[in-house]
Amino acid sequence: MSPLPQPPLPPGPVADLFGALHEQHHRAGWPSLRRIAAEVGCSHTTVSVAFSEPRLPRWGLLELIVEALDGDVERFRGLWLAASAAETELGPAAPAPAPAASTASGPAPAEPEQPERFVAPRELPAPIVPVVGRIADLARLDDAFEAAQAGTGPGVVLITGPAGVGKTCLAVAWSHTVAGRHPDGQLYLDLRGYDVSRARTPAAAAESVLRRLGVAAAAIPRELADRSALLRSLLAGRRLLLVLDNAHSADQVAPLLPGAASCFVVVTSRDGLPSLVTRAGAQRIGLRRLDEDDATTLLAQLIGKPADARPDAVAELARRCAYLPLALRVAAEVVTRDPDWELAEQVARFEGRAARLDLLDAGGDERTSVRSVFSWSRRRLGAQAGTLFELLGFSPSRELETAAAAALLGAGPAAGAAAVDELLRAHLVERRGDAIGLHDLLRDYVVELAARRPAAERHAARQRLFDHHVRAAGRAAAAAFADSGSAEARTWLDRHRQSLLAVARSAGQDSPSHCLRLAALLHPYLEVSGYYGDAIALQRTAIQAAQRPGGDRSELAGALRRLAGVLRRSGALAESLAAAERAMAIYEELDDRAGIASALDALTAVHVRQGRNELAGEELARAVELHRELGDRSGEAAAANRWGIALMQLGRFADSLARHEHAYELYRTLGQRVALGRVANNVGVVSLRLGRYDTAHAALSEALTIATEVGNRAGMGVALANLGEVAERRGRYADAVESYRQGIEVCAQVGYLAGLADARRGLGVVLARQGAHAQALETLRAALELGRGAGDADVETATLNDIGLAERLAGTDGAASHRAAYEAAGVTGDLFQRAKALDGLARAALAGADVPLARSHWLEALGLFDGLGVPEAAEVRAELGRLGAPAPDALAPVE
After folding, report:
1. Among candidate residues 773, 755, 754, 751, the one with its CA nearest the CA of residue 764
2. What's the pLDDT tens digit per position in 137-151?
3. Beta-sheet strands, E only, within 270-342
4. DSSP 590-629
5. In this structure, are strands 435-437 and 399-401 parallel, antiparallel, or unpaired?
6. What pLDDT digit, counting tens, does each position of 421-458 carry?
7. pLDDT of residue 693
8. Longest alpha-carbon distance in the chain
């Protein structure tokens, strides 16, 4: 940047000051106004005026500019004093006291003059209106005051909260309501604890209070303890309200506290001032940011009439201001500054991070600029807390545990916890459960601060943060899915899911290895818990990370395989198949036999869902052998379980049950409870087909218990729906409806479309049997659309048959629906649904008085049902007997 324009000034101290300032700017390399403003915490316009206008800047601002330029602050202090020849804030300096008379034993102690008269101050600033959303806080102040008056509570109230939350506004507004109850005055003192000017020292603050109460300068003692004692004596028996605004420490406040219970003190601070609570018994009232409704109301009142036409724009602006009262007031001024702009256009200007903070600079007023007031809080922090505050700008997560914050800082647990506690006391972070977080405007500010730190520091801090999250996720995932199934670990994963995902996304750009590790660690939790959208997004991020130059092909295949699994569960079968095929191709290219076996699992899962059961059976036989050769018992169990599903859909129930029982024993031995619950469900389904209702109920109840314990929400929904079918088969329709409705609710919550479709199908059957024909058909048709949308051929075929049943119960023949089910079962090879379709066609034919056709369909259905070994065979044999047709002997089940 080129040199800044220097104001034309005659020779003298003022010109000397400006010459030195511009020379320092040159020595610093001519940094831009925006860079200096970011360091100082104000607008670039304010900095420009300080350099270019022919008037002295305030010392507080000049001091910060000099610090930003690495200048000699003491030298500039002398130049500024010479230029301003200013008096102190209390007026001309008091003359030095006359020497004390000496005595034989030494100097006699000085006796301070007593005030000639007491001045009752009336110093409360005008209230800032409107006051919105503070009814409860005003009531707490009222209660505290009345308790103090009754002698049952302390006479000091401390209002704390973050910068810009409205502490001063509340204190002043409330003080006006009780001013009349303090006839000896209302004194207001800004302690400047967080201000562009230097904070008042305790001694200066005590002197200022005494002067305002009428004490002559010569009567004010030199020592702070003496000033404090004089103040207590002066206020004894008086009824005075003292408002001490913007304190940064208890040491600023303590010497100013009256000893008289008749006085009342209101203190405001961004710090929690725990020692003031401890030493003075102050009652703390913490202010939070406004909620959405109150923030929108305040903003609408400030904007006025234009807000009436666009409440949506007002609500959006309130959100972008993080519901912070100061920001809301500044924003209202900005958007009403030019009446020719539409409100929505004005709000759109607040979208970007830097633009938002620039717009909220309050026209360069350092005391109301949002960026500036944040900077004052930052300057009050200790070294480690200040560093952590800035490093928070490197975190991709909105929230951090204390341990994660310590990792970001690169400090031990104790030092990290201490830094976090200091940020909490300063209200620069918010406590959110077991974590800390920043509101949006503070986050914008720390991102600016972080961007100024060296690139190497940024990289190191983020690597520490990524390492921490990988370790933490690994511990939690291992505990959550261990044999015991830690509920605490699952709760931790639920609580920090969004943070872990944000870290994984960010690592995908900066550190692919961390992203890939998180994708592998978090996948079982996300899939089991039903967070399919998150799981899909995470695996796609991992795929992109693995495809970067130098990426690991095996890691890419693993991410593709995991993506295939969750896409299948969400109903995207075509995408699932494509991902599984890509994974298989990479594993074959790498000659990775374990990878090939896992890819086969993913492929066959899609084929089973599509009803390609013969193909799936061949692939699964190969997968089982591969897993056995590799000694992978978990993989063998998974393939055996999937094979059992394919065999069930082919009507080979005995073989299916054997596969499932084999998988069950393997999983039980391995202690893998999530998978054990899934297999127990499948054992229950096959037992249900075979008419073994007690066995089915026991297995499905176990499946539901395990799914609930391990947090498998999709598994819970499926088990509930299957228990509903057991109740329906037993004629317990009320129980069936309840189970189905619960299953529908859970499956809908997690987005498990196949499970949702099947639960709705079952509910439709029960409604049809209860005579609610219209509702039954509506429910079943919705289930059919869901099943088709999920690509689940088994659900689609079963639902077509059940629609035919509902149609017959409603008085139509249902033949078309059964015929469609018959054709669909022919494609998938599902002998059970094919037999059910024939049974339905026979009943439709009988309703139409076509006895020969009915007999033909029933004979064919009987052959299939007998071969399957299911209880429906007895029902069909009875129907044939009623027709007077000889029924063949029962056939052996298909093996």
Report:
1. 773
2. 999 999 999 999 999
3. 283-286
4. HT-HHHHHHHHHHHHHHHHHTT-HHHHHHHHHHHHHHHHH
5. antiparallel
6. 999 999 999 998 889 999 999 999 999 999 999 999 99
7. 95
8. 142
Backbone angles phi, psi at 150, to 5 degrees: -85, -5
d(CA 350, CA 329): 14
Integer-rounded Cα Rg, in Å, for the chain is: 39
Amino acid at 211: R
Cβ neighbours of residue 805 closer than 8 Å, sequence gap 6 or more: 765, 768, 814, 840
Confidence of residue 655 (pLDDT cuts 50, 70, 90): very high
- Calculated CA dihedral for residues 312, 315, 319, 325, nearest 10 degrees: 160
- Other Cβ atoms less than 10 A from the Cβ of 778: the count is 15
Which helix (H) or strand (E) element contains residue 267? strand 264-269
Task: Report how far residue 819's alpha carbon sits from residue 822's, in angstroms, rounded to the nearest whole number.
Answer: 5
User: What rounded mean pLDDT belongs to the chain?
Assistant: 89
Q: Residue 115: is the preceding peptide bond cis (ω within 30°)?
A: no
Asked if 658 and 635 count as a contact pair (C-beta separation under 8 A), the reply is: no
Beta bridge partners of 156: 265
What is the pTM (predicted TM-score) of this model? 0.73
Question: Which tokens is 94 given?
Answer: 């008091």
pLDDT of residue 881 exceeding 80, the answer is yes
The whole-angstrom separation of Cα 617 and Cα 614 is 5
Q: What is the DSSP letter of 410?
A: T
In single-letter form, the type of residue at position 801 comes to N
Q: Say yes or no to pLDDT of 566 above 90.
A: yes
Per-residue pLDDT tens over the stretch 85-116:
633 333 333 333 333 333 334 444 444 444 44
pLDDT tens digits for range 174-201: 999 999 999 999 999 999 888 766 788 9
User: Rounded to 5 degrees, what are φ and ψ at 609?
Assistant: -65, -35
The conformational region for residue 597 under phi > 0 = left, psi -120 to 50 = alpha, else beta, is alpha
Residue 534 has pLDDT above 60, yes or no: yes
724: how many CB neighbours lie within 10 A of its CB?
A: 29
Q: Give the contacts of 747 (CB within 8 A, at least 6 positions apart).
A: 714, 717, 718, 721, 753, 755, 756, 759
Rounded Cα–Cα distance for residues 608 and 611 (Å)? 5
- Which tokens go with 62? 């000049």
Burial class of 190 by CB neighbour count within 10 A (0 to 12, 13 to 18, 19+): buried
**Cα distances (Å, whole numbers) of residue 720 to 464, 672, 723, 750, 894:** 44, 21, 5, 14, 29
E strands within 108-233?
Answer: 156-160, 186-190
Mean pLDDT value of segment 663-682: 93
Predicted confidence at residue 255, as pLDDT, reads 96
Distance separating alpha carbons of residues 855 and 849, to the nearest angstrom? 11
Reported as a single tens digit per residue, the pLDDT across 824-858 is: 998 888 899 999 999 999 999 998 889 999 999 99
Average pLDDT of the segment spanning 555-574: 93
pLDDT computed for residue 115 by the predictor: 47
CB-based burial, 207-243: b 16+ in 10 Å, e otherwise: bbbbbbbebeeebbbeebeebbebbbebbeebbbbbb
Q: Which of 182, 360, 357 is CA-nearest to residue 263?
A: 182
Q: What are phi and psi of 394, to 5 degrees?
A: -85, -15
Give me the pLDDT at residue 838, please.
95
pLDDT at 742: 97
Number of CB atoms found within 10 A of residue 54's CB: 12
Alpha-carbon gap, residue 858 to 565, rounded angstroms:
40
Q: Would you say 436 and 403 are in contact if contact means Cβ atoms under 8 Å apart?
A: no
Alpha carbons 212 and 214: distance in angstroms, whole number: 5
Q: List own/partner pairs for 389-392 with CB under 8 A and 24 or more apart.
A: 389/423, 389/428, 389/429, 389/446, 389/449, 390/446, 390/449, 390/450, 390/453, 391/450, 391/453, 391/461, 392/429, 392/438, 392/443, 392/446, 392/450
- Distance between CA 615 and CA 660 in Å, rounded? 19
